[in-house]
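quick one if you have a minute, typing this from the bus. below you get a single protein, a line of residues and a line of whole numbers that encode the local backbone shape. could you go over both lines and see whether the tokens make sense for that sequence. anything you notice is useful, everything is just below.
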Amino acid sequence: MAVGSGSSLQAGKESTWGTAVASTFPINFTSESIVLKADKKADESLLASKAAMASDLMRLSVDGSFSFVLRPEFAGQLFKMALGGTDIVSQNVGAVTGYHKHSIVLADANGAFPSYTFIVDRKVAVKKYAGGKVESLSLECKAGDYVKGTVNIKAKDETSGSLTAGLNFSKKSFKTIGATLVVGGVTHDVNNAIFTLANNLQESEQTYGLGLYNPEPLHSTRDITIDFDIPYSTAIDTLKDTYLLTNDLANTAVLTLLSPSMVTGTSPYKVVLTLNNVSVTDVSYNVSSTGVISAKVSAKALAIGSTEPLTAEIYDDTSAAY
């Protein structure tokens, strides 16, 4: 009998889609549902028979998800695998030696999108999933809690694998103490914020040459949203009147998350998510009890002109691009 305690999830970036590689970073996961799915079809026939006369394997595919608590050891890799675009590194930010900023954008609409090999140790067996691409990423940033998230993936196949030794955690998880959310230049003191990126991977049909497997899935138009809960105030009415009831856009929505661990001195591990050209799509507030009236706000980033709809900035001690 196997228990979940002591299980591991690691990943490594591939050079070629579907060609498995050794893992290079750990993921601080709390659950996973990555599964190999087999499609079997019954042989159709008009012959009289008490049951189907054949059931043959026609297709194999992998999909699923993993949930995690965000840590500095894999934050940069996480946003690289989710956004897929170029990572521009600014070294020694603020003249602080060893403090580096990674600015990662979305992969171009018709550009290459990175794939990863995911390796899961479930105690009974270690399984390797090659050709993994991120279908979606969500982060839940609840006040007074750690930053938690879920990644949905699509992958090519499942084989036996092995973990890379020495991939451990030594830094503290990101939490919402000290986090900020600024929309249109106004800081909102929220109870909870949920960031979601959907890459909307499109799967093509099987071909003769690929046998049991599907071709590489391709990303399409992304959906980038942020939703937050906040005590109702005049600031929420202003946000509603300014952005929901007009065609005006907030120039940015900026979510900043911190780890208590420092890269050096007083320079923390940090993640800054910037949504540009933000359309507010919903503002709601109702009285439901004698307690504080809560408002809910939803918004999405748009691709307008040459401005990137989303940029993830990761501040850490890694000098090379992800």
Summary: The chain has one domain: 8-37+58-207+217-316. The mean pLDDT is 94. The two ends are 38 Å apart (CA to CA). Helices lie at 72-83, 234-244.
